[in-house]
Amino acid sequence: KAGVTQTPRYLIKTRGQQVTLSCSPISGHRSVSWYQQTPGQGLQFLFEYFSETQRNKGNFPGRFSGRQFSNSRSEMNVSTLELGDSALYLCASSLQGGAGTEAFFGQGTRLTVV
Amino acid sequence: GEDVEQSLFLSVREGDSSVINCTYTDSSSTYLYWYKQEPGAGLQLLTYIFSNMDMKQDQRLTVLLNKKDKHLSLRIADTQTGDSAIYFCAESMPGSSNTGKLIFGQGTTLQVKP
Question: Out of A41, A52, A94, B108, which could bridge A101 as a Cys pair, Cβ 3.0 to 4.6 Å?
Fold first, then answer.
C-alpha cells in the first residue's frame, strides 16, 4: 500500500509570490491534515479536510488556504509569501480524522522563501 | 488548555534503555501518540495509547501513562544507533473542534552513542 505522497519535495520562492503544495493520501483515507514545522514554533496545525470540506482550522492567517478533491487529494496554497513562511510543510492522512485514528505523515515539502 | 511538554535532548549508549518523557495538560479523554522523525524525513507513527490505559508494549517499545500526573513516557529497550532521531509526543482530543488535529510537543532529540 503506497504511503502519503507530497509534491514537490523542495521549493524556493521569492517574497510576495504564491505557492501550491500537493498531498496524496493513503488509498481509502478521507481525512487530510496539514502542519507547518519550523525550528522556532515546532509543529503547528494548519487545517483538516474531510470529504472535500474543511472541518477544522488552526491559527494561521488567511494567506494560508487549502482544498480537497473528490479523490481525497489535497492542496494547500500560501499567497503573498513572507520570509517567515519558510518551513517544512507536512500532511497527514487518516481514515476518519477523529481522535484515536492513526495519522500517517508524508515526507513533507521544504519551502524556502528568499 | 492545550500544551504538550518534552525534554529537548537525551543521550544514551548503544544497548542501554532510553526513556523519553512527556507531559500533557488536557484533562478530557484523549489519545497520546509517539512519532519518530529522522533527518530530512516526515513523521513515522511508532505507537499510541488511549488515556484510560496504563501501559502498552510493542516489541522494544513500552509506553507508560500516569493519568494522575498527566505524564507519558516512551521506553526503548536495547537502543540502537538507528534509533537516533527526534521523538515527538502528540495529543489528540475528542470533539468537533479538534477533528484531525494533533498537538505536538517540541520533540526530544535522542542521540545514541556507539
Answer: A94
Interface test mutation site (partner B, options A36, A56, A91, max chain B beta carbons within 10 A): A56
Compare all CA atoms of chain B with the CA of A105 and give the residue at the minimum distance.
B43
B20-77 pLDDT, tens per residue? 999 988 766 678 999 999 998 899 999 999 888 899 999 999 999 998 898 999 999 9
Q: What is the mean pLDDT of residues B6-29?
A: 91
Give yes or no for a contact between B49 and B64, defined as CB atoms under 8 angstroms apart.
no
User: What are the residues whose beta carbons fall under 8 Å from the beta carbon of B85, sequence distance 6 or more?
Assistant: B36, B37, B38, B39, B109, B110
Interface residue B99 vs chain A (CB under 8 A): yes
Q: How many residues can be counted in chain B?
A: 114
* Beta-carbon contacts below 8 Å between A and B: 77
In the numeric block, the cell 492513526 is attached to: A102
Question: Where does the pLDDT of residue B1 fall: very low under 50, low under 70, confident under 90, or very high at 90 and above?
Answer: low
Residue B57, amino acid: Q
Contact B96 A55 (CB under 8 A): yes
Who's near A42: CB < 8 A, 6+ residues apart?
Answer: B104, B105, B106, B107
